[in-house]
Amino acid sequence: MTTAVVDLGIGNMGSVANMLAKLGATVDLTSDPARVGNATRIVLPGVGNFDTATRRLMERDLVGVLNDSAAGSTPILGICLGMQLLAESSEEGCSAGLGWIPGSVRRLPTEGPSGKVTVPHMGWSHLRVLREHRIVADTNAESRFYFVHSYVFEPTDPGDVVAVAGHQGIEFAAVVARRT
Predict the structure, then answer these.
(1) Looking at the DSSP assignment, which residues form a beta bridge with residue 175?
(2) Does the N terminus or the C terminus of the chain have fewer Cβ atoms within 10 A?
(3) pLDDT tens track for 128-150
């Protein structure tokens, strides 16, 4: 079983590939459409700009193979900007996202119920799991995750949200999924 970590030439793909390898996965850090298409799992990592990432997906001819993989049974994990690419659109840019999960990416608000909100959100947060899913199967109330982001994915269907996290009184989708 090979896990393709999609290399867009931006972001944290090396760190993601190294961690997956440390966990025992056979990792292929690649931007080759054939290798991505032949993988048994795909990871879309990301740190950066929405439009830049979508442009890189198109330049590397990855959109078609990713769409085919998503339509099939290949599990695909989007991390940070990679998760945002699953949306239809983003306020961060003009490009269309992959559109696999209906919804849009919005900038974190600068005001919340408790007053001013610091953007970007940087730091450790707990998840509140809303529904069962294999990706959060080992998550408990003590699990913390590190966030660095200014944008959040807002799915159209609340049922696509697996878990939420919070930042200064603002709750946002931290884990989204279409299938189990």
Answers:
(1) 163
(2) N
(3) 999 999 999 999 888 999 999 99
